[in-house]
Predict the 3D structure of the following.
Amino acid sequence: MIYLEFFKEQGLGNQLWNYAALRAIAEFKGYEYTILKFEDFKGHDFIELCPGNIKEKIIRTENLKFFNEKIFYDNELKTFACDFDKNIINIEPDTNINGLFQSEKYFFNKDINKYIKIKETSKVRKKELFKKCILNIRGGEYKRFKELILPKSYWINAMNEMKKLVKDISFVIVTDDYNYSSNLLPGIEILIGDIKSDFMNIYYADYLIVSNSSFSYFPIKLGRKAKKVIAPANWARYGNKFNRWISPANIYKDWEYMDNKGILSKQKISQILINTNNTYSKYNIIANKNHFKRKSILFLIPKRIRKLIKFILSKIFPLYIG
């Protein structure tokens, strides 16, 4: 049996990536599987997952081995990057897997629809979404990292690209940050809702422009197929001067990728990935992730006061503070 643990601080997208990878790896290896802390899954209301074969009420996790997905720290771009870790093929029983697992290679050509089901009561397509393109804009904590959050030009250029395909197409926004999105692209309707409605709106969309977030992958890939999906080239470091793909794991079949010059050809994407992987293949330092944790002087301020200050500043500077 192999194991996976859910955490409260994980987003829904990250949980689904971990779960789908676990299921596919278990099937590939012929192992049973179990989810630890399954109650922390964020999609219980509208998504059906199987927690696995739990033979004991109490699982002695201290006896488990751990598989930690290989991760690269890019000191030039000051970020972490992942790709498919081929060492997963050698995983042994009684192992708890830990990582992002956001490469489609972890699925071993298995159909993820076998593992993840949308509850029938949630399957209601809104007529007003016909011939509309959803912009899935990520704000919130992304605004803390100027290299991570996408510029306004990305959304404008991608909308113009969509108009080439459907001349009379209109746009609506699905976002985790209404204040940010309304200031970024004023005049475009925002679909107000919770995580369930955001997920289902993306699930039924025919045309999408997405951010560099894990959230949109599963509503797009489960069940029906969208007609066109545009995503940011270089993923988490859009337009970086080294032209690296951060992360190489985040390149998905049937999606189109756009930089500031337009849609990239498959040949261009392939060359970027080759150059990125060639760079990381030369990395040879392995470190504990705790080495990179740094304490800010802001931690001397009580948490409730920090939250109040952050809330006030987010209202004054919605494009910069989440």
